[in-house]
Each structure stands twice: as C-alpha cells, then as structure tokens.
Amino acid sequence: MVEVPAKIYITNLAKRAREAARPLALLSGPIKARALAAMAERLSVEAAAILDANQQEVESIGTHLAQGSDKDSVKAAVERVRLTPDAIRGLADRMTQIAELPDPVGEVTRMWRQPNDLQVSRVRVPIGVIGIVSDSSPLVTTEAVGLCLKAGNVCVVRGGPEWSRSRGLIATILREAAEQAGVPTGGITFVERPEREAALELLRQSKYVDAIVPRGSAGLRQTVMEQSRLPVLCDDLGVCRVYVDADADLPLAQNIVVNSKVQLPSASNAADTLLVHQSIARTLVPALVRRLLDEFKVQVRGCPKTITLTGSQSLTGYESVTAATDEDWSRQFLSKTIAIKVVKDMDEALDHLAKYGPGHTDTIVTRDYAKAMRFAREADSSAVLVNASTRMHDGALLGLGGEIGISTARLHARGPLALEELTCQKYVVLGTGQLRQPHPVPVTYEDAIMLKRPS
Q: What is the CATH number of the domain that holds 354?
C-alpha cells in the first residue's frame, strides 16, 4: 500500500481539526471540566500500560546507542526518554487541576456605555486551532493538550519521535476519554507520522491552523521560528540573568544563584548570566564559584575581574573558570554553564541587561526596596523577580494554573502562556437602533476665512 504524502496527510488532518473548532469553542465549562477529569482518570488507570510501552522505547534506544557510544551518552539518552510512575501520577493530577480552573471563555474583561447608548464589551474567546510541535516528553505535550481544551481550542500535536509507543498510547487515551465526555471528534488531534516533513508541513497550514507552539529544544524552537508561516505564540528564547546588588543578603544570594542554575539546567528559565556588584564581589564570587565548580560541576565563564578573584583557588576535580566571550552574555546555555560578570553599580547592570537580550527572566537580590523597585521598572524581560530564583518564572508557580510555554515576544502575550493567553478577545456591541451619521463636509482654511468675513 502506497503511503499518502506528508503534505496531503497533514492538510487533511488540519482540515478536520478546523471543522472541530466551532463546536469545541461552544462547549460549556462543565463539559470541558468533565472531559479533563475523564482524561486524568484514564491516565491513572492506564499508567502501567504507558510505562510498559515506555520501557520498550528505553530498551530500544539503549540497544541502538550501545554500539559505538560512550556509557555516559547512553545513560543520558535513556534517562531522557524514561517515564516514571510519579511522573504519570503527577500528570494526571495536573489534568485534574486544569479541570478545576475557572473557564476563561466568555469572560467579560471590560464593559462601557457610549454617549449614544451603545453598550460595548470585550469578551474572551478561543484562538481556534493551535498546532503544537514538540521533541519533549509526551508529559509536556499532554499538559498542553489539557490547557488548550480548557481554553476552548482545538490542538494538533506532533510529538517527539523517541516516544512513539508511549505517545501513541497516551494520544489514544486522551482522545477516547475526551470524545466520550462530549468533545467533538478532531478536537484533540495527534500527528502519527514520525518524519520531519510532517512537522514542517504543520507549520505551513495557514488555512486551517491559527498559531503554532514549539515545546522542546533550542534547535526545535529555532526551526519553528524560521520555517513557520503561522504566528508563533511562544518560543521560550531569551537570557535569564541574576543581579546581586551591594545590599544583598549573601547567603540568600548564593542559594538563589545555585537554584536558578542547577535545579534544572536545561530549562528555559535556568540562569545563564550572573552579575555581581563590585563591592561584594570579593566576598561572594570565590565561595560561590567554588560551590558551582566542585559541588555541582557547573562550567563557569567569567569576566577578567571574575577570573582574577577566582584564579588563586585550588579547585578539586574540575576545571577552573574560563574567559567569557562577548557572545556568552547573550547566550541561553540550557546546560550546566553560567557566565559571571562583576559590575560597578546597578546602572552598569541595567545597561548590560538592555544590551544583551532578549530577556527571558531577570532577578535582583537586594535588601533595598527602592533599588528593587527600580530594577523591576527598568529591567526589560518577560518576568522580573525580586529575591527569588529565576526558576520561579512558571505558570503553575505564579498561580496561573500551568502554562503551555513562556513567550519573550511583545505581541499577543509575554511571559507564561497560560489559560488567558490561550484566548483572544472580541468586541460585543449592544445597540438600540443606532445609525452612523455622515461626517460634516470638511471645511478648508480658505473657506473658514471667508465665513469669518463680514458680509
């Protein structure tokens, strides 16, 4: 049997998704909540089957990489693909939490009355059809599916090929549970073709898909940004910086930097750059660098002052600080690497943030309220934090009920792309027969002079 070309396959899939957009947008809040609860229950019931499918993926990857790959590379690849019982339970809990969130669709965000008695309101409505392209775990895309459904959107998901078995099973579970609860067929759509061309074709479906969300590696996000003919709702691109001010609590500063960098180095909100006020650099930098290098095996790149402050240290079992390049200050490392710079004051720190961007997350550590408020006002990133880890820039942790990603763009939404950001707004105007009257005929300057002259 001849396989349908990827372009035709994706076009047909996107067309069916578009046909489901109107009935899904009209679903009531209770039906959507019931569907999400059913999806959560099925995930819990089928957890053993999902883990069994995933174990086959783990064994397949381990066997494939064992030939000619070093032990550490094989272990890292296997751990990336492996799903755990706790992860499945956590995902089911997240779906339940999404089900319990207030429904954003239909919310009136503003209402006013015009002098002619027109009543104008602005109302939240679904965006429509959202494509999700991911090379991450199916757990990531599953949460995105839940948020899209809650916001009344159809989603078309192309997941990571490494999880083909477990992803296929999870897709079946979610689709069946949702449709049995009243979600229209096509409301949750998964791309089953693994080839790269299928993902690229999804990015070109401007007739049927309204927006694209990339979830995963920097390479995937860059490809989506370059290849998509659709609006990209979030890209997670941008640099995360921590500035430690002269008035900082140094133990607190050290803990914030370590957590920002080490808690999950591959996350888009993990710290990339550390700026330290020169008045405390001699006290903070050597001890912090020693901890990063020896305890957490972080690669540290530093400015000349940082290298001078740390050059005399005897660091055990790991390399010393290397010189940072100009490109390092605008680099999103997504790994155990951090660049450190000593600055003379907050002005230099803010100038650095403005020069090297775009800003994803910026944090200041200080006990001075006025400086904290100035930093919050002038640091230009999608989130500015005071005395908190950059890793706290997360939709769930900020009380938004989860996120589909983080946007550093200035259009549509900036920051966590949560439920509200998965909607757009339309105007609803109530009238009582108001008619637009023609404008008066424009009067030229010469005519106005003539009108003013006495007859």
A: 3.40.309.10
Enter the tokens of residue 390. 């950059």
Please determine, for residue 73, whether its predicted confidence score (pLDDT) is greater than 90: no
For the chain, the first-to-last Cα distance in angstroms comes to 93
CA distance 428 to 121: 5
| Domain total of the chain | 2
List Cα–Cα distances, 104 to 132, 146, 152, 265, 424, in angstroms.
Answer: 20, 14, 9, 33, 10
pLDDT in tens, 257-301: 999 999 999 899 999 999 999 999 999 999 999 999 999 999 999
How many whole angstroms separate alpha carbon 275 and alpha carbon 359? 14
Cis peptide before 358 (omega within 30 of 0): yes
Average pLDDT, the chain: 91
Domain that holds residue 388: 239-409
Q: Could you give the C-alpha distances from 327 to 309, 324, 330, 350, in angstroms and in order?
A: 22, 8, 6, 18
425 against 237, higher pLDDT: 425
In a domain, residue 433? The reply is: no
**How is the beta sheet containing 154-158 ordered, strand by strand?**
188-190, 154-158, 129-134, 211-215
Residue 149 DSSP code: H
Q: What is the pTM of this model?
A: 0.87
Q: Are 220 and 134 in contact (CB under 8 A)?
A: yes
- CATH number of the domain within which 49 lies: 3.40.605.10
> pLDDT tens across 173-210, in order?
999 999 999 999 999 999 999 899 999 999 999 999 99
Residue 187 near residue 178, CB atoms below 8 Å: yes
Q: Which pLDDT belongs to residue 314? A: 44
